[in-house]
Description:
Helix content is 60%, strand content 8%. It is α/β, with parallel strands linked by helices and 537 residues long. Strand 1 and strand 2 form a beta hairpin. The longest helix has 25 residues, at 81-105.
Amino acid sequence: MKVLYPSFLFLYFLIFVSPGIEIAHGAFPQGDEIMHVRTVRESLETDNLFIPQLNGLANAYKPPLLFWAGMLSDVLFGESFLSERLVSLLFGFLTTILLYCGILAFGKSSRFAFQISLVYASTFAAWKFSRLLMMEQMLTFFLFLFVYLYLRFQKEKKIAYFLFGIISLNIAYFIKGPLVIFYAIVLPLSFLAVDLLRIRKRKLNVNWQSILKYKHILLFPLSFLIPILWMFYLSRYSNEGALLIKFFLFNENVGKFFSENQPMLRILGGWLLYTIPFTPFLFLFISRVISTKINTREKRILRVIAYFLLGLTLLHLLPNRKDSYYVTPFIPILFLGVSLSLSEAKITSYFENPWLGRIYILLFIGIAIFSFWNSESKILIVSAVTILFLFVSLYTQYRFQIQFLISVLFIPLIAGIILPTFQNPLPANDLQSFQLTRLCVVSENPWHGMDYQNQLRKTMVIYSPPSSATDLCENQNLPILSLSNFYSPGKKYIPSISWYVWKAHLEIGVNDFLEIVQNVHSLKFKEQIQFYEVERR
Protein backbone atom coordinates (compact mmCIF):
# COMPACT_ATOMS: atom_id res chain seq x y z
CA MET A 1 0.00 0.00 0.00
CA LYS A 2 2.96 2.37 0.45
CA VAL A 3 3.24 2.43 -3.35
CA LEU A 4 -0.50 2.58 -4.02
CA TYR A 5 -1.19 5.55 -1.74
CA PRO A 6 1.06 7.97 -3.71
CA SER A 7 -0.68 6.73 -6.85
CA PHE A 8 -4.05 7.64 -5.32
CA LEU A 9 -2.70 11.10 -4.48
CA PHE A 10 -1.57 11.51 -8.09
CA LEU A 11 -5.04 10.54 -9.33
CA TYR A 12 -6.60 13.06 -6.96
CA PHE A 13 -4.51 15.85 -8.45
CA LEU A 14 -5.25 14.64 -11.96
CA ILE A 15 -9.02 14.35 -11.51
CA PHE A 16 -9.96 17.03 -8.97
CA VAL A 17 -7.23 19.69 -9.08
CA SER A 18 -6.20 19.91 -12.74
CA PRO A 19 -9.64 20.33 -14.48
CA GLY A 20 -10.11 23.86 -15.75
CA ILE A 21 -6.41 24.67 -15.43
CA GLU A 22 -6.36 26.02 -19.00
CA ILE A 23 -8.77 28.84 -18.15
CA ALA A 24 -8.15 29.08 -14.41
CA HIS A 25 -7.28 32.76 -14.78
CA GLY A 26 -10.92 33.41 -15.66
CA ALA A 27 -11.98 32.19 -12.22
CA PHE A 28 -9.05 33.73 -10.35
CA PRO A 29 -7.85 36.97 -11.97
CA GLN A 30 -4.23 37.22 -10.84
CA GLY A 31 -2.17 40.25 -11.79
CA ASP A 32 1.07 38.52 -10.83
CA GLU A 33 0.23 35.46 -12.91
CA ILE A 34 -0.39 37.61 -16.00
CA MET A 35 3.10 39.05 -15.57
CA HIS A 36 4.62 35.59 -15.03
CA VAL A 37 3.05 34.12 -18.18
CA ARG A 38 4.11 37.17 -20.21
CA THR A 39 7.68 36.85 -18.89
CA VAL A 40 7.88 33.16 -19.83
CA ARG A 41 6.60 33.72 -23.36
CA GLU A 42 8.53 36.91 -24.08
CA SER A 43 11.76 35.31 -22.85
CA LEU A 44 11.26 32.40 -25.23
CA GLU A 45 10.35 34.70 -28.13
CA THR A 46 13.46 36.85 -27.65
CA ASP A 47 15.81 33.98 -26.68
CA ASN A 48 16.55 35.61 -23.31
CA LEU A 49 16.51 32.29 -21.51
CA PHE A 50 19.05 32.95 -18.77
CA ILE A 51 17.78 36.37 -17.66
CA PRO A 52 13.98 36.41 -18.17
CA GLN A 53 12.57 39.46 -19.94
CA LEU A 54 9.41 41.52 -19.51
CA ASN A 55 8.54 44.40 -21.86
CA GLY A 56 12.02 44.33 -23.33
CA LEU A 57 13.78 44.58 -19.96
CA ALA A 58 15.09 42.07 -17.43
CA ASN A 59 12.29 41.09 -15.05
CA ALA A 60 13.42 42.51 -11.71
CA TYR A 61 10.23 41.72 -9.83
CA LYS A 62 10.86 38.04 -9.13
CA PRO A 63 13.83 35.62 -9.08
CA PRO A 64 14.08 33.49 -12.22
CA LEU A 65 13.41 29.86 -11.22
CA LEU A 66 9.64 29.98 -11.78
CA PHE A 67 10.21 31.49 -15.22
CA TRP A 68 12.86 28.92 -16.11
CA ALA A 69 10.48 26.11 -15.15
CA GLY A 70 7.66 27.70 -17.18
CA MET A 71 9.91 28.04 -20.22
CA LEU A 72 11.01 24.42 -19.94
CA SER A 73 7.39 23.29 -19.75
CA ASP A 74 6.48 25.38 -22.82
CA VAL A 75 9.38 23.87 -24.77
CA LEU A 76 8.40 20.32 -23.79
CA PHE A 77 4.61 20.55 -24.15
CA GLY A 78 3.98 23.55 -26.39
CA GLU A 79 3.09 27.11 -25.45
CA SER A 80 -0.20 27.26 -23.55
CA PHE A 81 -1.63 28.18 -20.16
CA LEU A 82 -1.90 24.46 -19.46
CA SER A 83 1.82 23.86 -20.08
CA GLU A 84 2.90 26.77 -17.91
CA ARG A 85 0.58 25.88 -15.05
CA LEU A 86 1.75 22.28 -15.04
CA VAL A 87 4.75 23.59 -13.09
CA SER A 88 2.58 24.51 -10.10
CA LEU A 89 0.53 21.33 -10.43
CA LEU A 90 3.74 19.26 -10.31
CA PHE A 91 5.09 21.01 -7.20
CA GLY A 92 1.69 20.80 -5.50
CA PHE A 93 1.79 17.04 -6.00
CA LEU A 94 5.45 16.79 -4.88
CA THR A 95 4.65 18.73 -1.70
CA THR A 96 1.84 16.30 -0.93
CA ILE A 97 4.15 13.32 -1.47
CA LEU A 98 6.80 14.94 0.74
CA LEU A 99 4.20 15.40 3.49
CA TYR A 100 3.30 11.70 3.11
CA CYS A 101 7.00 10.73 3.49
CA GLY A 102 7.43 13.09 6.45
CA ILE A 103 4.54 11.51 8.35
CA LEU A 104 5.92 8.02 7.64
CA ALA A 105 9.32 9.14 8.97
CA PHE A 106 7.74 9.64 12.41
CA GLY A 107 6.45 6.09 12.57
CA LYS A 108 2.87 6.66 11.49
CA SER A 109 1.09 4.09 9.31
CA SER A 110 0.92 4.53 5.54
CA ARG A 111 -2.88 4.72 5.73
CA PHE A 112 -2.75 7.55 8.27
CA ALA A 113 -0.06 9.36 6.25
CA PHE A 114 -2.26 9.05 3.16
CA GLN A 115 -5.29 10.47 4.99
CA ILE A 116 -3.45 13.54 6.30
CA SER A 117 -1.72 14.12 2.93
CA LEU A 118 -5.05 13.93 1.12
CA VAL A 119 -6.50 16.37 3.63
CA TYR A 120 -3.70 18.83 2.84
CA ALA A 121 -4.16 18.34 -0.92
CA SER A 122 -7.86 19.17 -0.44
CA THR A 123 -7.30 22.55 1.21
CA PHE A 124 -8.17 25.74 -0.59
CA ALA A 125 -4.49 26.75 -0.67
CA ALA A 126 -3.27 23.58 -2.39
CA TRP A 127 -6.19 23.56 -4.82
CA LYS A 128 -5.89 27.21 -5.81
CA PHE A 129 -2.13 27.61 -6.14
CA SER A 130 -1.63 24.25 -7.86
CA ARG A 131 -3.62 25.68 -10.80
CA LEU A 132 -1.85 29.01 -11.31
CA LEU A 133 1.61 29.96 -12.58
CA MET A 134 2.63 31.61 -9.33
CA MET A 135 5.53 31.00 -7.00
CA GLU A 136 3.53 29.74 -4.02
CA GLN A 137 3.51 26.00 -4.73
CA MET A 138 7.16 25.89 -5.82
CA LEU A 139 8.18 27.88 -2.74
CA THR A 140 6.02 25.62 -0.54
CA PHE A 141 7.85 22.55 -1.81
CA PHE A 142 11.41 23.81 -1.28
CA LEU A 143 10.67 25.34 2.14
CA PHE A 144 8.94 22.13 3.24
CA LEU A 145 11.85 20.12 1.82
CA PHE A 146 14.19 22.03 4.12
CA VAL A 147 11.86 21.44 7.08
CA TYR A 148 11.67 17.71 6.27
CA LEU A 149 15.46 17.38 5.94
CA TYR A 150 16.13 19.37 9.10
CA LEU A 151 13.70 17.24 11.10
CA ARG A 152 15.43 14.12 9.80
CA PHE A 153 18.75 15.69 10.83
CA GLN A 154 17.43 16.30 14.35
CA LYS A 155 16.06 12.77 14.54
CA GLU A 156 18.99 10.81 13.10
CA LYS A 157 21.89 13.24 13.79
CA LYS A 158 23.25 12.85 10.24
CA ILE A 159 24.82 16.09 9.05
CA ALA A 160 24.13 15.12 5.42
CA TYR A 161 20.43 15.90 5.94
CA PHE A 162 21.26 19.41 7.11
CA LEU A 163 23.65 20.02 4.20
CA PHE A 164 21.05 18.87 1.68
CA GLY A 165 18.65 21.24 3.41
CA ILE A 166 21.14 24.07 2.85
CA ILE A 167 21.23 23.15 -0.85
CA SER A 168 17.43 23.33 -1.00
CA LEU A 169 17.62 26.86 0.46
CA ASN A 170 20.12 27.88 -2.22
CA ILE A 171 17.56 26.78 -4.81
CA ALA A 172 14.65 28.38 -2.94
CA TYR A 173 16.38 31.77 -3.16
CA PHE A 174 15.68 31.73 -6.89
CA ILE A 175 11.95 31.59 -6.14
CA LYS A 176 11.42 34.09 -3.34
CA GLY A 177 14.74 35.76 -2.66
CA PRO A 178 16.48 36.12 0.73
CA LEU A 179 13.22 35.98 2.71
CA VAL A 180 12.98 32.19 2.35
CA ILE A 181 16.36 31.78 4.07
CA PHE A 182 15.12 33.85 6.99
CA TYR A 183 12.07 31.59 7.08
CA ALA A 184 14.37 28.59 7.45
CA ILE A 185 16.49 30.11 10.23
CA VAL A 186 13.39 30.27 12.41
CA LEU A 187 13.27 26.44 12.54
CA PRO A 188 16.57 25.78 14.40
CA LEU A 189 15.81 28.80 16.59
CA SER A 190 12.50 27.12 17.47
CA PHE A 191 14.38 23.94 18.44
CA LEU A 192 16.75 26.05 20.53
CA ALA A 193 13.84 27.79 22.26
CA VAL A 194 12.26 24.44 23.20
CA ASP A 195 15.56 23.06 24.57
CA LEU A 196 16.70 26.29 26.16
CA LEU A 197 13.54 27.27 28.01
CA ARG A 198 11.78 24.71 30.22
CA ILE A 199 9.04 25.23 32.79
CA ARG A 200 9.45 22.91 35.75
CA LYS A 201 7.50 23.18 38.97
CA ARG A 202 5.94 26.37 37.62
CA LYS A 203 9.36 28.00 37.27
CA LEU A 204 11.13 29.00 34.09
CA ASN A 205 14.52 27.29 33.79
CA VAL A 206 17.18 28.17 31.21
CA ASN A 207 19.41 25.33 30.02
CA TRP A 208 22.37 27.28 28.64
CA GLN A 209 24.31 24.14 27.73
CA SER A 210 21.75 23.30 25.05
CA ILE A 211 23.18 26.13 22.94
CA LEU A 212 26.24 23.96 22.25
CA LYS A 213 24.05 21.50 20.31
CA TYR A 214 23.26 24.16 17.72
CA LYS A 215 26.73 25.00 16.43
CA HIS A 216 25.53 23.88 12.99
CA ILE A 217 23.55 27.14 12.74
CA LEU A 218 26.90 28.76 11.89
CA LEU A 219 26.68 26.94 8.54
CA PHE A 220 23.55 28.87 7.53
CA PRO A 221 25.54 31.50 5.56
CA LEU A 222 26.17 28.67 3.05
CA SER A 223 22.53 29.19 2.05
CA PHE A 224 23.65 32.38 0.31
CA LEU A 225 26.51 30.76 -1.63
CA ILE A 226 24.79 30.22 -5.00
CA PRO A 227 22.71 33.44 -4.68
CA ILE A 228 25.92 35.44 -4.16
CA LEU A 229 27.48 33.80 -7.24
CA TRP A 230 24.30 34.64 -9.18
CA MET A 231 24.42 38.30 -8.10
CA PHE A 232 28.13 38.43 -8.96
CA TYR A 233 27.32 37.13 -12.44
CA LEU A 234 24.54 39.70 -12.87
CA SER A 235 26.70 42.60 -11.76
CA ARG A 236 29.69 41.65 -13.94
CA TYR A 237 28.24 40.11 -17.08
CA SER A 238 24.79 41.65 -17.53
CA ASN A 239 24.16 45.18 -18.78
CA GLU A 240 21.19 45.54 -16.45
CA GLY A 241 22.62 43.41 -13.63
CA ALA A 242 23.32 46.12 -11.05
CA LEU A 243 19.92 47.73 -11.56
CA LEU A 244 18.29 44.29 -11.45
CA ILE A 245 19.83 43.50 -8.05
CA LYS A 246 19.10 46.95 -6.65
CA PHE A 247 15.46 46.93 -7.76
CA PHE A 248 14.76 43.43 -6.46
CA LEU A 249 16.49 43.72 -3.08
CA PHE A 250 15.34 47.24 -2.23
CA ASN A 251 12.17 48.08 -4.17
CA GLU A 252 10.62 44.61 -4.03
CA ASN A 253 11.80 43.45 -0.59
CA VAL A 254 12.75 46.41 1.59
CA GLY A 255 9.98 48.39 -0.14
CA LYS A 256 7.37 46.18 1.56
CA PHE A 257 8.18 47.99 4.81
CA PHE A 258 7.30 51.38 3.35
CA SER A 259 4.17 50.71 1.30
CA GLU A 260 0.71 51.33 2.73
CA ASN A 261 0.26 49.44 5.97
CA GLN A 262 -2.32 46.65 5.93
CA PRO A 263 -4.28 45.22 8.90
CA MET A 264 -2.55 42.48 10.90
CA LEU A 265 -5.69 40.34 10.75
CA ARG A 266 -5.03 39.70 7.05
CA ILE A 267 -2.29 37.22 7.99
CA LEU A 268 -4.44 35.53 10.62
CA GLY A 269 -7.31 35.47 8.15
CA GLY A 270 -5.01 33.71 5.70
CA TRP A 271 -4.66 30.80 8.13
CA LEU A 272 -8.44 30.53 8.38
CA LEU A 273 -9.11 30.95 4.67
CA TYR A 274 -6.46 28.80 3.05
CA THR A 275 -6.94 25.80 5.36
CA ILE A 276 -10.65 25.53 4.40
CA PRO A 277 -12.42 23.09 4.76
CA PHE A 278 -10.06 21.73 7.43
CA THR A 279 -9.67 24.93 9.43
CA PRO A 280 -10.85 23.10 12.61
CA PHE A 281 -7.60 21.11 12.39
CA LEU A 282 -5.75 24.38 13.03
CA PHE A 283 -7.57 24.83 16.34
CA LEU A 284 -7.15 21.15 17.21
CA PHE A 285 -3.41 21.55 16.64
CA ILE A 286 -3.22 24.65 18.84
CA SER A 287 -5.17 23.01 21.66
CA ARG A 288 -2.96 19.90 21.51
CA VAL A 289 0.22 21.96 21.69
CA ILE A 290 -1.03 23.93 24.69
CA SER A 291 -2.19 20.85 26.59
CA THR A 292 0.72 18.51 25.75
CA LYS A 293 3.75 18.10 28.00
CA ILE A 294 7.10 17.44 26.33
CA ASN A 295 7.91 13.89 27.40
CA THR A 296 8.58 12.19 24.05
CA ARG A 297 10.55 13.05 20.92
CA GLU A 298 7.35 13.45 18.88
CA LYS A 299 5.87 15.90 21.41
CA ARG A 300 9.10 17.90 21.33
CA ILE A 301 8.84 18.14 17.53
CA LEU A 302 5.18 19.13 17.92
CA ARG A 303 6.15 22.04 20.17
CA VAL A 304 8.94 23.05 17.77
CA ILE A 305 6.51 23.14 14.82
CA ALA A 306 4.16 25.31 16.86
CA TYR A 307 6.97 27.77 17.69
CA PHE A 308 8.10 27.70 14.07
CA LEU A 309 4.66 28.55 12.68
CA LEU A 310 4.17 31.24 15.31
CA GLY A 311 7.56 32.72 14.46
CA LEU A 312 6.80 32.75 10.73
CA THR A 313 3.43 34.41 11.36
CA LEU A 314 5.01 37.10 13.53
CA LEU A 315 7.73 37.60 10.92
CA HIS A 316 5.06 38.45 8.35
CA LEU A 317 3.47 40.99 10.66
CA LEU A 318 6.62 43.14 10.48
CA PRO A 319 6.33 44.44 6.87
CA ASN A 320 3.50 46.73 5.87
CA ARG A 321 2.43 44.23 3.20
CA LYS A 322 0.38 41.49 4.89
CA ASP A 323 -1.45 39.66 2.13
CA SER A 324 -3.34 36.62 3.36
CA TYR A 325 -1.75 34.22 0.86
CA TYR A 326 1.68 34.75 2.44
CA VAL A 327 0.88 31.89 4.86
CA THR A 328 0.33 29.28 2.11
CA PRO A 329 3.94 27.92 2.14
CA PHE A 330 3.51 27.08 5.84
CA ILE A 331 0.31 25.02 5.57
CA PRO A 332 1.92 21.59 4.89
CA ILE A 333 4.09 22.21 7.98
CA LEU A 334 0.88 22.73 9.94
CA PHE A 335 -0.50 19.39 8.72
CA LEU A 336 2.73 17.65 9.61
CA GLY A 337 2.17 18.98 13.13
CA VAL A 338 -1.45 17.81 12.99
CA SER A 339 -0.23 14.30 12.13
CA LEU A 340 1.96 14.30 15.24
CA SER A 341 -0.84 15.56 17.47
CA LEU A 342 -3.52 13.12 16.25
CA SER A 343 -3.72 9.34 16.20
CA GLU A 344 -5.63 7.26 13.68
CA ALA A 345 -8.38 6.82 16.26
CA LYS A 346 -8.63 10.61 16.76
CA ILE A 347 -8.89 11.40 13.05
CA THR A 348 -11.51 8.66 12.66
CA SER A 349 -13.57 10.10 15.51
CA TYR A 350 -13.26 13.57 13.93
CA PHE A 351 -14.78 12.43 10.64
CA GLU A 352 -17.38 10.24 12.37
CA ASN A 353 -18.68 13.21 14.35
CA PRO A 354 -22.36 13.56 13.39
CA TRP A 355 -22.13 17.34 13.68
CA LEU A 356 -19.68 17.37 10.80
CA GLY A 357 -22.25 15.62 8.63
CA ARG A 358 -24.93 18.13 9.62
CA ILE A 359 -22.63 21.03 8.78
CA TYR A 360 -21.98 19.59 5.33
CA ILE A 361 -25.71 19.09 4.78
CA LEU A 362 -26.39 22.75 5.64
CA LEU A 363 -23.53 23.89 3.40
CA PHE A 364 -24.78 21.85 0.47
CA ILE A 365 -28.31 23.19 0.95
CA GLY A 366 -26.86 26.71 1.03
CA ILE A 367 -24.96 26.06 -2.17
CA ALA A 368 -28.13 24.71 -3.76
CA ILE A 369 -30.01 27.88 -2.78
CA PHE A 370 -27.20 30.01 -4.17
CA SER A 371 -27.19 28.03 -7.41
CA PHE A 372 -30.94 28.57 -7.82
CA TRP A 373 -30.20 32.02 -9.24
CA ASN A 374 -27.42 30.67 -11.42
CA SER A 375 -28.64 27.69 -13.41
CA GLU A 376 -31.08 24.84 -13.03
CA SER A 377 -28.52 22.14 -13.77
CA LYS A 378 -26.30 23.15 -10.86
CA ILE A 379 -29.08 23.09 -8.30
CA LEU A 380 -29.99 19.61 -9.51
CA ILE A 381 -26.40 18.48 -9.04
CA VAL A 382 -26.13 19.91 -5.53
CA SER A 383 -29.58 18.63 -4.56
CA ALA A 384 -28.65 15.14 -5.73
CA VAL A 385 -25.43 15.22 -3.68
CA THR A 386 -27.34 16.49 -0.64
CA ILE A 387 -30.01 13.79 -0.89
CA LEU A 388 -27.33 11.15 -1.39
CA PHE A 389 -25.45 12.34 1.66
CA LEU A 390 -28.62 12.43 3.77
CA PHE A 391 -29.41 8.89 2.69
CA VAL A 392 -25.92 7.52 3.31
CA SER A 393 -25.58 9.30 6.66
CA LEU A 394 -28.37 7.08 7.98
CA TYR A 395 -25.96 4.18 7.81
CA THR A 396 -23.44 4.82 10.54
CA GLN A 397 -21.30 1.88 9.45
CA TYR A 398 -19.68 3.97 6.70
CA ARG A 399 -19.91 7.38 8.34
CA PHE A 400 -16.13 7.89 8.42
CA GLN A 401 -15.61 6.95 4.77
CA ILE A 402 -18.49 9.08 3.50
CA GLN A 403 -17.69 12.18 5.53
CA PHE A 404 -14.00 11.90 4.72
CA LEU A 405 -14.84 11.65 1.02
CA ILE A 406 -17.19 14.63 1.17
CA SER A 407 -14.48 16.61 3.01
CA VAL A 408 -11.76 16.05 0.44
CA LEU A 409 -14.14 16.77 -2.46
CA PHE A 410 -15.57 19.89 -0.82
CA ILE A 411 -13.32 22.48 -2.50
CA PRO A 412 -13.59 20.99 -6.03
CA LEU A 413 -17.38 20.79 -5.59
CA ILE A 414 -17.64 24.41 -4.44
CA ALA A 415 -15.33 25.48 -7.26
CA GLY A 416 -17.39 23.69 -9.88
CA ILE A 417 -20.65 25.27 -8.70
CA ILE A 418 -19.97 28.75 -7.33
CA LEU A 419 -16.80 29.94 -9.09
CA PRO A 420 -18.27 29.84 -12.63
CA THR A 421 -20.65 32.56 -11.41
CA PHE A 422 -17.66 34.82 -10.82
CA GLN A 423 -15.66 33.73 -13.85
CA ASN A 424 -14.97 36.42 -16.41
CA PRO A 425 -15.64 35.72 -20.07
CA LEU A 426 -12.60 35.36 -22.32
CA PRO A 427 -12.93 38.09 -24.98
CA ALA A 428 -10.00 36.56 -26.82
CA ASN A 429 -12.27 33.70 -27.88
CA ASP A 430 -14.60 36.13 -29.67
CA LEU A 431 -11.77 38.23 -31.07
CA GLN A 432 -10.27 35.21 -32.81
CA SER A 433 -12.94 35.47 -35.53
CA PHE A 434 -11.66 38.93 -36.56
CA GLN A 435 -8.23 37.45 -37.45
CA LEU A 436 -6.43 40.46 -36.03
CA THR A 437 -2.77 40.95 -36.85
CA ARG A 438 -2.50 43.97 -34.53
CA LEU A 439 -4.63 45.20 -31.64
CA CYS A 440 -4.41 48.24 -29.39
CA VAL A 441 -5.46 47.67 -25.76
CA VAL A 442 -6.40 50.90 -23.99
CA SER A 443 -6.43 50.73 -20.19
CA GLU A 444 -5.14 52.47 -17.09
CA ASN A 445 -3.50 49.15 -16.12
CA PRO A 446 -0.58 47.97 -18.31
CA TRP A 447 -1.12 44.38 -17.15
CA HIS A 448 -4.28 44.28 -19.29
CA GLY A 449 -2.03 44.60 -22.34
CA MET A 450 0.03 41.64 -21.12
CA ASP A 451 -3.13 39.63 -20.43
CA TYR A 452 -4.49 39.99 -23.97
CA GLN A 453 -1.07 39.39 -25.49
CA ASN A 454 -1.04 36.11 -23.55
CA GLN A 455 -4.47 35.18 -24.88
CA LEU A 456 -3.96 36.35 -28.48
CA ARG A 457 -0.69 34.65 -29.34
CA LYS A 458 -0.89 35.36 -33.09
CA THR A 459 -1.76 39.04 -32.65
CA MET A 460 0.68 41.87 -31.92
CA VAL A 461 -0.84 43.66 -28.93
CA ILE A 462 0.08 47.30 -28.36
CA TYR A 463 -0.71 48.74 -24.95
CA SER A 464 -1.73 52.37 -24.53
CA PRO A 465 -2.93 54.43 -21.58
CA PRO A 466 -6.04 56.52 -22.43
CA SER A 467 -3.99 59.72 -22.71
CA SER A 468 -1.82 58.29 -25.52
CA ALA A 469 -4.46 56.29 -27.40
CA THR A 470 -4.94 58.90 -30.13
CA ASP A 471 -1.27 58.78 -31.14
CA LEU A 472 -0.60 55.09 -30.56
CA CYS A 473 -3.88 53.62 -31.78
CA GLU A 474 -6.17 55.96 -33.72
CA ASN A 475 -3.50 57.59 -35.92
CA GLN A 476 -2.43 54.10 -37.05
CA ASN A 477 -6.03 52.95 -37.62
CA LEU A 478 -5.60 50.02 -35.23
CA PRO A 479 -8.60 48.10 -33.90
CA ILE A 480 -9.09 49.06 -30.26
CA LEU A 481 -10.04 47.06 -27.18
CA SER A 482 -10.96 49.59 -24.51
CA LEU A 483 -11.02 48.71 -20.82
CA SER A 484 -11.19 52.32 -19.72
CA ASN A 485 -14.29 54.20 -18.60
CA PHE A 486 -12.54 57.47 -19.43
CA TYR A 487 -11.88 56.86 -23.10
CA SER A 488 -13.80 56.37 -26.34
CA PRO A 489 -12.20 56.64 -29.80
CA GLY A 490 -13.03 59.16 -32.54
CA LYS A 491 -15.86 59.12 -35.06
CA LYS A 492 -14.12 56.82 -37.53
CA TYR A 493 -14.44 53.97 -34.99
CA ILE A 494 -17.59 51.95 -34.51
CA PRO A 495 -18.33 49.71 -31.49
CA SER A 496 -18.49 46.08 -32.49
CA ILE A 497 -18.81 43.72 -29.51
CA SER A 498 -18.58 44.17 -25.75
CA TRP A 499 -18.33 42.14 -22.52
CA TYR A 500 -18.79 42.77 -18.83
CA VAL A 501 -16.14 41.65 -16.35
CA TRP A 502 -15.80 41.90 -12.58
CA LYS A 503 -14.17 45.10 -11.41
CA ALA A 504 -10.46 44.81 -10.66
CA HIS A 505 -9.50 44.38 -6.98
CA LEU A 506 -13.14 43.82 -6.06
CA GLU A 507 -13.58 43.11 -2.36
CA ILE A 508 -17.08 41.80 -1.75
CA GLY A 509 -18.67 42.32 1.66
CA VAL A 510 -21.51 40.25 3.10
CA ASN A 511 -24.21 42.63 1.86
CA ASP A 512 -22.58 42.79 -1.58
CA PHE A 513 -22.44 38.99 -1.74
CA LEU A 514 -26.14 38.72 -0.89
CA GLU A 515 -26.91 41.30 -3.56
CA ILE A 516 -24.99 39.26 -6.13
CA VAL A 517 -26.84 36.11 -5.06
CA GLN A 518 -30.18 37.84 -5.64
CA ASN A 519 -29.13 39.09 -9.08
CA VAL A 520 -26.04 37.55 -10.62
CA HIS A 521 -26.65 39.55 -13.80
CA SER A 522 -26.38 42.90 -12.00
CA LEU A 523 -23.78 45.23 -13.50
CA LYS A 524 -23.13 47.06 -10.22
CA PHE A 525 -19.86 45.20 -9.61
CA LYS A 526 -18.83 44.93 -13.24
CA GLU A 527 -17.21 47.09 -15.88
CA GLN A 528 -17.49 47.03 -19.66
CA ILE A 529 -14.90 46.00 -22.22
CA GLN A 530 -15.62 47.43 -25.66
CA PHE A 531 -14.09 46.38 -28.98
CA TYR A 532 -13.96 49.04 -31.73
CA GLU A 533 -13.28 48.60 -35.43
CA VAL A 534 -12.36 51.27 -37.96
CA GLU A 535 -15.45 52.06 -40.01
CA ARG A 536 -15.15 50.79 -43.56
CA ARG A 537 -16.13 53.37 -46.20
